[in-house]
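Suppose you are handed a protein chain with no further information: no name, no annotation, nothing but its sequence. What can you learn? This example shows the usual starting point.
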Amino acid sequence: MAVTTKATIASFGGQLLKCVHNASTTNCEMGFNLYLPPQATINPLRKVPLLIYLAGLTCTGDNGAEKGFFQHAASQRGIALLFPDTSPRGLNIPGEDDSYDFGSGAGFYVDATKEPWSQGYRMYSYIASELPRTVFDNFNQVDGSRVSVFGHSMGGHGALTLFLKNPGKYRSVSAFAPIANPSSCDWGRKAFGGYFGDEDKAKWAEHDATELVKTYDGPALDVLVDVGTADNFYKQGQLLPENFQKAAQGKEGKVNIRWQEGYDHSYYTIATFADDHVNHAARYLLE
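A reasonable first move is to predict its three-dimensional structure. Written in structure tokens, the prediction is:
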């Protein structure tokens, strides 16, 4: 699928590309940001690994690219960054723009099975397959054999579930304040009920990191999670990282939850610890 680059922005010695393409899984034009580090722009024949960042509720592909400061460490380590959108856009489904936590900007990285959302809200397939394939086909500098994933809030949920559902596909995973047990929080119950139906709890479990980790049988876990102690959404019970950590007990490896004193749910927190997460991925992408 062809990609149109609408802007090229110099960043940390590399290039941030703002792109669009027509996506078959979501039935609409989708935008994304792609950061190519200097190692790839100076020598286009050099292959660099890819780290996918999944953003949270209300976000687009611009938020992480413009406020996350991931390019700093990525430029030093020679890692490309991919920033997808968080939902289809402009499908004109009744109600898709009515609330911040469902529909537009809130695709929850699932493939909806309930009408009318199944007509285009297929963000799991888009992120797991169509978008990276499109990037690999159009940007030869990006190495499709070395991919990691991380994310924030709803995107942290997406990163964890993609990693756990596809053992070995992603070399590493990390998350900022992830919605780690969506079946047990208000955000998740609303999204899963709307996209899957309230009765299909088995489908809910297929996209709940706390449930998935119980049956995970892949490479040893090394999950980095940062949560701020001043995160109001954590205090409201929307994130539930302890449930995920408890469910992972007994699995080979570790879930490392770092409680960051005084930090909240915002991109100020993400930017503060951005280098740590890129370097976490680098240990696996560059080995």
